[in-house]
Amino acid sequence: MSNIKPMAHNKIFLSIALTSLLTLSACSDNDTGSMPTPEPEPAPNPTQDYRVTVTNLTANQPMSPMALITHQTRFTPWVTGEAANLTLETLAESGDSAGFANLDGVDALVTGEAALAPGMKQSFDLTLTDSESSSFSLLTMLVNTNDAFAGVNSFSLAGLEVNMIKKFSSIAYDAGTEANSEAKGTIPGPADGGEGFNPIRDDVDRVYAHSGVISSDDGLSSSVLSASHRFDNPVLAISIERLR
């Protein structure tokens, strides 16, 4: 994760391809020379186009590749005060979001191609059909931490009309699955290059607002982080625009 390349723009399509059906009508004995008449093709489902833009507001906390999730209203990626599931724990400790694609209620997962560097911005275009998801979430890890993450938690797309923009700001959350030791070998980002996911849970085992980085410059002598890795809230600015 040390080679961080800002991504200017990703064109992403989430759509359901329609297969044309051709039904041949049976020919009678008196009409053997006539050609079968195909049934009309079904009309394509109307599409909805959205643009999601994310800005990293931190000074020295790269964000893992964005995980954009479209899902049903019953799904929520995290609940503050409750234990993180294994998929959230994996993302918060390593930046790996692949597990979200297999969760019940999730329709599609799209991930960014690169980490989002401090001060940089990324945009993603999404095309959905009317038959697809009604809600949207976004998650990313602050990679120079033990288990901090940020994002959008279950935003309903139903009320977003064409040309409307919804803006969010996200604080940093602590997955509560790994102690914030900041010790060498425990942080996957470029500040350390240590391990990512570890199945052992040695923290409070509930999601809560992250208390921030201490760093070696501020009295934690065993920390591999410096004062530059500290962050204030919010850590992300996010907007969702309905284009069509």
UniProtKB/TrEMBL annotation:
Signal peptide: 1-28
Coiled-coil regions listed in the entry: none
Keywords: Signal
Taxonomy, superkingdom: Bacteria
InterPro entries: Spondin_N (IPR009465), Spondin_N_sf (IPR038678)
PROSITE patterns with a match to the protein in the record: PROKAR_LIPOPROTEIN
Name of protein: Spondin domain-containing protein
